[in-house]
Amino acid sequence: MVRSSVAAVLALALGAVAKTVSYDFNVTWVTANPDGLADRKVIGVNGVWPLPVIEVDKGDQLLVNMYNGLGDKSTSIHWHGMFQNGTNNMDGASMFTQCPIPPGSSFTYNFTINQNGTYWYHCHTDYCYPDGYRQALIVHDVNAPFINDYKEEFTITLSDWYHEMMEDLSKEFMSLYNPSGAEPIPDSFLMNDGQNRTFSVEPNTTYLLRIINTGNFIAQYFYIEGHNFTIVEVDGVYTEPQEASTLYIHIAQRYSVLLTTANTTDVNYKIVTVADQDLMDTIPSNLQLNNTNWLVLNADAPLEQAVVTVATSDDLVPFDDFTLVPTDGMALLPDPDIQVNVTVYMVNLMTGYNYAELNNITYTAPKVPTLYTALSAGDLRTEEVVYGEYTHPITLAHNQVVEIILNNGDSGSHPFHLHGHNFQVIQREPPLGPLFNSYLDGDPIGYDPDNHTAFPAIPIRRDVIVLPPQGFTVLRFVADNPGVWVFHCHIDWHLASGLAMTFIEAPELIPTHVQIPEDHYAACAAAAVPTVGNAAANTEDYTDLTGQNAQPADLPDGWTPRGETAMAFSVLSAVLGIISLVYYGLADLKHRPKEAPAARESSEGEVAATTTEVTKQG
Ligand SMILES: *[C@@H]1O[C@H](CO)[C@@H](O)[C@H](O)[C@H]1NC(C)=O
Ligand SMILES: *[C@@H]1O[C@H](CO)[C@@H](O)[C@H](O)[C@H]1NC(C)=O
Ligand SMILES: *[C@@H]1O[C@H](CO)[C@@H](O)[C@H](O)[C@H]1NC(C)=O
Ligand SMILES: *[C@@H]1O[C@H](CO)[C@@H](O)[C@H](O)[C@H]1NC(C)=O
Ligand SMILES: *[C@@H]1O[C@H](CO)[C@@H](O)[C@H](O)[C@H]1NC(C)=O
Ligand SMILES: *[C@@H]1O[C@H](CO)[C@@H](O)[C@H](O)[C@H]1NC(C)=O
Ligand SMILES: *[C@@H]1O[C@H](CO)[C@@H](O)[C@H](O)[C@H]1NC(C)=O
Ligand SMILES: *[C@@H]1O[C@H](CO)[C@@H](O)[C@H](O)[C@H]1NC(C)=O
Ligand SMILES: *[C@@H]1O[C@H](CO)[C@@H](O)[C@H](O)[C@H]1NC(C)=O
Ligand SMILES: *[C@@H]1O[C@H](CO)[C@@H](O)[C@H](O)[C@H]1NC(C)=O
Ligand SMILES: *[C@@H]1O[C@H](CO)[C@@H](O)[C@H](O)[C@H]1NC(C)=O
Ligand SMILES: *[C@@H]1O[C@H](CO)[C@@H](O)[C@H](O)[C@H]1NC(C)=O
Ligand SMILES: [Cu+2]
């Protein structure tokens, strides 16, 4: 008796006893019409779409047996925000940590969840999650600081939605007809994979809302008429409570807020989402940027459409996440051991298509998944060369403090995500808010280490940060998670056009930290993807990259975007004999010519190296 009660007290103190949460996912095509405008094929699980919201308690083991029943498409699942510490092979990123799972193959994801908060899961193989293969993943934590402050919780996903299949849209996107790289415009916007959602609530009562942007492309503003709310979590990090009236939620970002409802049962309140029109090159007249869903206090009162009174979405002033403070109080990391300095560019390469580059590299998948190269390369696994030039590999030593300087040479904003970690955001200009687009007036401005505002003493940490138009952000993290981790823009169009790079963290420790189960290798065999060798699948000489997948060549010097357009069309007319097919905004080119952002104060003789080893102070 005594023993068991001690055990019970211990179990209570430690929270719920860890359990295994298991799912069998038979992934198949199903038909859905979430906006009421068009039936389309979507990726369902066990014949159902929307997909199941996965809920676990902190400490649980998540086991998902996935069978690819699509018949015509490879797939995988990334568990967005999960650190996968010791289970890098469960990260789900095709050609980084596993092979794409071909039709007819099975693959088991199995990992322990020891993190807090709001996450999601989605396919991470070419262009697959916007076809519907995404959903929330919630981690309940009985020790959350706000656990006693709310009556009930709601999970709210926001997303853009296309009527056409990604495989069709992607052919238009990466094409000679689209040399400016204009992204396909969504057809509508969803909440919880539908529209006109109602959330039944009681007056003067506090709720926890977990809000996730599971879309492909478009950031959204979020507010509730007549209410403010209190932010308590971002991307799995608890924050000191801060009041806000409007959130700006870019792709893959999450916010948890406490909402106390008005003390009335007279009316129902509008939950308003407004799509960020700055991301779109054209706005079709029938695209409904503003959408209304409702907090229902009185089922008999009307559900009215919101009237958004600002002139443009830029006039909505969102909360600046840079000012948040994690409750765990983790201090600013010390000066970095290594700096990774990369700039986003949108360029045209020799094919005539538009690509995204970090510095001069557009990510091009290797022939062997990078993790399998790390496992098979022996002592050479610490050499960047074995991972190939076009995966943009950076090797990190165990426990190094890493600083990423991310400059934006592009006029669009980009939500950047790091796998395997969250990062401290120690600098971002311009800030979210009225100045967000202020660097568009001139040339891009890069981060200047000799002229910046003070770093926060306790910086916010998250796993997706918005990189402002022509501005910059600076991030820090500790390389304490041996494995292969992607750093990429989470707009799926941009990931597909190469806006990604690869960190190989503590390569010498990867073989002892990561074990690959048989079914993972079996998926590779079925997909005919080699599991040993360097990025070129060379198993004889790991330093010989002959035959690696390479990015297209640069255009000859002197091509301006208009010149590129002209070239694209002359190639097109030579090939097809037509010159007049224009899909999107060719006359008004969105992306600027490639030129390095000027650091605020440039010193002579600065080397444009990607990484800089820094002698650690102190
Ligand atoms: C998956 O679902 C499809 C369609 O319902 C069915 O034909 C197939 O047998 C299922 N496969 C597995 C492994 O459950
Ligand atoms: C939501 O309501 C609007 C306005 O009544 C309507 O146009 C739209 O079709 C509805 N959406 C769905 C999915 O029913
Ligand atoms: C899942 O992983 C746990 C921990 O490594 C292990 O004990 C368990 O056997 C695994 N389950 C399956 C089905 O692979
Ligand atoms: C709301 O409820 C709290 C108790 O939960 C109470 O103290 C407060 O006075 C109420 N406010 C209003 C406006 O009714
Ligand atoms: C919300 O907060 C703003 C200040 O951030 C304040 O001006 C406004 O009155 C608040 N609104 C409500 C409904 O509390
Ligand atoms: C996770 O939750 C625990 C309490 O359960 C807390 O101590 C810890 O600081 C939280 N971690 C983060 C990153 O918020
Ligand atoms: C609103 O608050 C007042 C007092 O603060 C209370 O008497 C009344 O019952 C509340 N109304 C509702 C609908 O909760
Ligand atoms: C939608 O929001 C825009 C601002 O982004 C505004 O110009 C427009 O009038 C709004 N439309 C409706 C129907 O509220
Ligand atoms: C990028 O620039 C570096 C340094 O100038 C050069 O060595 C490398 O070959 C370039 N890579 C590509 C893909 O152009
Ligand atoms: C991974 O686990 C090790 C201990 O096993 C810990 O020191 C490290 O902080 C963890 N890293 C992450 C990103 O979870
Ligand atoms: C430092 O940055 C500020 C803010 O952008 C800028 O106004 C100022 O000119 C810069 N100072 C120098 C010396 O470059
Ligand atoms: C980063 O690289 C850019 C372009 O190569 C260069 O202009 C800038 O000075 C570098 N910044 C730092 C902090 O090294
Ligand atoms: Cu992007």
UniProtKB/TrEMBL annotation:
Tell me which domain of life the UniProt entry assigns to the organism this sequence originates from. Eukaryota
- The residue ranges crossing the membrane are 566-586
**Location of the Plastocyanin-like domain:** 26-141, 152-279, 363-507
Q: Which UniProt keywords apply?
A: Copper, Membrane, Metal-binding, Oxidoreductase, Signal, Transmembrane, Transmembrane helix
Q: Where is this region: Disordered?
A: 595-618
Q: Which SUPFAM superfamilies does this UniProt record tie to the protein?
A: Cupredoxins
For this protein, the record's CDD domains field holds: CuRO_1_Fet3p, CuRO_2_Fet3p_like, CuRO_3_Fet3p
Cleaved signal peptide residues: 1-22
Question: Which regions are flagged for Low complexity bias?
Answer: 605-618
Q: Do you know which Pfam families this protein is assigned to?
A: Cu-oxidase (PF00394), Cu-oxidase_2 (PF07731), Cu-oxidase_3 (PF07732)
**Would you identify the family this protein belongs to, as annotated?**
Belongs to the multicopper oxidase family.
Q: What is this protein called?
A: Ferroxidase fet3
Please give the organism: Sporothrix eucalyptigena
